[in-house]
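Quick one - first record:
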Amino acid sequence: MTDKLITVGVTGADGAMGGEVVAHLLASKNNYALRLFVYDKVKHYRSFFKKLLKIGKGRITIVRGDLKNFDEVSQFVSGCDYVIHCGAVIPPKSDHNPENTKNTNLHGTENIVRAIHESGRENEIKLVHISTVAVYGNRNYKHLWARMGDPVMSSPYDYYSAYKIKGERIVLESDIPNWVILRQTAVYHKYFLANNMNDGLMFHTCWNSPLEWCTDRDSGLCIQNLVDFDLAGKLNGFWNKDYNIGGGAGCRETGYDTFNYGFALMGANAEKFFKPYWNIPRNFHGVWYTDSHVLDDWLHYRTESSADYWRRMAKELWYYKLGAIVPSALIRKLAIERLLKNSNAPMNWVKTNKEGRIDAFFGGRKALEELPKTWDKFPVLSKGQTPEGAVDYADLKDENKADRFRLNHGYDESKPDQELDLSDMKSAAAFRGGSVESTEMTKGDLYTRINWKCHNGHVFAARPFTILKAGFWCPECCEAPDWSFDKASVHVPFYAQVWYDSHRKDEENNVYPYSEHEDDDLLVPVEKL
């Protein structure tokens, strides 16, 4: 507990995670003053956020503004000791308005960093930047597990992850003294079911994608403990690093499991309402983390499992039980099939000949046509089924055996960080199809930039930490958009080792989007979202 009045700023405070952060900060024994940066066009707050404003009356200052407006961001940042940057355009809104997603998620982060730089208090303000599991792109049963340093590879057409990756790089390469990046996994939150029943996004979850969830409450506790523990002097060595947020063993499942948890509220399961081919088989995002325990060791935030969350939802959403007495055909028609026509639904892309999306999400027309049309023919990973044959699902989920899925990072990871030198940088660069242009480096210094060159000849400066520990590479040709990982993987073994788990080598010339008009019918004014 501290006697000094500490001001914590939160962007995206009226969102699912931001709201829980506010709730937990208000519950802290430290009497924090809160500055909440709220989008200036928001007129109607959710009831949960309204309740928080009443609870925090006298301790909360609302700063209305837009992350795209530097002056408004600067006004918000100037009074903060900590900035918790949760604010972002997320799916499905990010799918419908890519330009706003870019301006908010990328330029908004640039404005936050710049505002800290120019505040006159950059040595005092600490930035907590919330990133996303989506930076790892698509994973399947061949590499279910991920860790820090794995390649960041935005899935094609995922504008959210594309600009989150670029925003994360802004923080990694910034010169502000105190920052931390938290790659938040998928969050089970109080709006989860309602949000997923209003957009074709519900069909973007692959049945067999690995997902390590974290509940909204644990996410809020994570940030509360971060600030509390830091003020108590417990986080020496924590800052200026990148961590994965995950709920651990009790939160690891697949997309199929997730749907079944939800439908269990009405005594049913996914197979009762869905055809297996309605959902995409690839181009999603989700992993099980081998290293989410690292953050929990620091912040002790894990208190809930997926089952705990769904028990909570069963109590709060008791009326879902009524679904058990409604004919399943009627529920399927009114709740599920109506969304197949949504502009963000894969079956809509098939019907309207969105060939770029068919290639990206299905692997082409031929692969789409070959997808099993019935559940008895569809391999479900959590049932121990893969296209290649039977597997032991429980064995796949065993964290003690996860090293068999460990990706190569291109250098000797057995060496302590303080022993890494230019030879390690050259090894890592070669595994990325490039080279190191700098001729010297101080051993163990992962934060002084050196010059690198990619396979296309682009020379760029980056911190060794950004490349080796955060999984980045060339900012010009190895980040989206456009999405050219099919082409890059031919030259970059670092990418190829995971990309070809779900992509064929004969797709090597694919670049997404094929046309600047590919997304025209998905672009709608942000005020309508």
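second record:
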Amino acid sequence: MKFFENGKLYAGCNYWASHAGIYMWSRWDRDIVDKDFKQLSEIGIELLRVFPLWSDFQPVNKVYGYHGINNGISTDNGETLLNSFDPGIDETMMERFSQLIDLADKYGIKLIPSPLTGWMSGRLFVPHLLEGKNLITDPFAIKWEVRFVKAFVRRFKDRKAIAAWCLGNECNCMSPVESREQAWLWMDIITDAFKSVDPDREVISGMHSQFTPDEDHWTLQDCGDCCDYVTTHPYASPSYATDRDPMNTIKPLLHPTAQTIYSADIAGKPCFIEETGTFGQMYGDEELNAKYCEGAIYSAWSHNCLGYLWWIGYDQGSLTYHPFGYNNRASNYGLYREDRTLKPVGKVLKCFNEFASTFGKLPERIVDGVCIVTPDQNTWNAGGSAFILAKQARLDLRFAYSLDDLPDAKAYFIPSLQSANAFGTNYIKALMNKVENGASLYISLGHGFPRNLTDDFGFHIKGRRNVDKADSVTIGDDSITMKGNVIYDVVLNSAESLAKNQDGKDVFLKSAYGKGTVYILMYPVESYLYGLLDGYSDKHYKIYDEVKKSIDSGKVVSCENRMIGVTEHPVSENERIVVLTNYGYDATAQVVLDEGWLLDKVYLGNVTDTLLVEIENTKTTVFSIKKR
């Protein structure tokens, strides 16, 4: 039962009841939830992620006797003991969740339940029976988790409002693991518990911050192996250094989109933005929060990110119990204020849902190349930065991991290479075979050692030395600052120099290789820029501009403003949808089409007959073009 559709983005939110937050089940008020759902439906929300709090729904604990001997397990403080087959479910809570589904049906809302919600907003909510146990590796804990999941799914699997199942909320935060295998085993067991009862519905990971195998035990590859969908929970936050720049600028705005594409490609499964938002009033006022949402949601839509669920439906600033009493960030970043008035960010979702419902499905964007991330580096800093630079150069990227399969592409980008063990011999051979047959290859160097570098790239190295300073690099008529790990003394053979540093050393080289072209930059520019404040305001994209010259992407739209992202979506051989999103500042931008293409229809925004586009910061313009 496939829920998400390519070309459509569900703009919804995560939901805790407006009056009680996480305690909504123990303080259940059907009338308030009814009012909440009515309000959410009025802004076009059709999808909610909901949380049956684990400790409320499976309130199991031990009953102790003489000398602490376990006399059995109970859910009612020892009045009755569970038999061998009882999963310990609280029937009152299950009935309340049934009422929640009834209300979803009433307002045409689909639900993604996350049964194993043991971690929420900085606090663990686990059954007393399992307190102190490792919830990921302990067999006793896993047994009760599986029993809970099966009982929950069995009860509600026939309800049409259930869109899909989610394992829980960021379950990798519940307990530590000592190996990748422990994490994989837990995910596989819990996913199988869902599938054994409801084989037709898809299972969503619900995870945040998963990595490549050399970075963490919770890997995207393993998550993709176990689940039908992987997820991102991107915020303008310290987690990925997206809180360093103003929220309405290119790095924070593109982050949800880029991380979602990255996660889908590395995991090998579809991915959507399951939870996103800002950290409230200390990061910006309501208008700025709305701008962040506006730029990010249209960007996600234009890159086929499937879903965008805001955190959260209602402000929670008046709640005083833990975690709200101590976690001062987890408070007022809802779509609605506590007095039930709609905030500017809620208006953004309303406008997007109105637009999306009339527009229909958006075809896939044209993709120009693959960014290959490698071990022994912060893969996201390198890959996410490459995505931004490529976007500024009018290139669209997907991702791959160098220890997995090499995808077919017109161009390959290996950003900020740090490792001497990033590739196997067969991988390099396959990659250079792609280049020999016409692909382009770009590598930027940190401490990395590409195999056969001097043979394949048309130069040789006389020597090298480590450095710890920034250089001024001249490319064309522009000078840009870059900081590297190593300075190389090179002698050009067949290679052409595209840029020199202030000492006159050749630092950006181009060479023919068979039918293709290879480029090498002597600086890890991507990792360098990702750590800077406002790192993408200069002209570092000129590096990617040079690579673009050798790529025949088939795109027909250009725009000189490099803070405006452009995607092209072929409808047919003679028709395309064009989406422009402003990741920078208010602008009037001139769009230029290749000869033979004409403006057809404007769906969103202001576009003149001469393709002059007035586009404010974080706004999006959508129009179609046709070939004569």
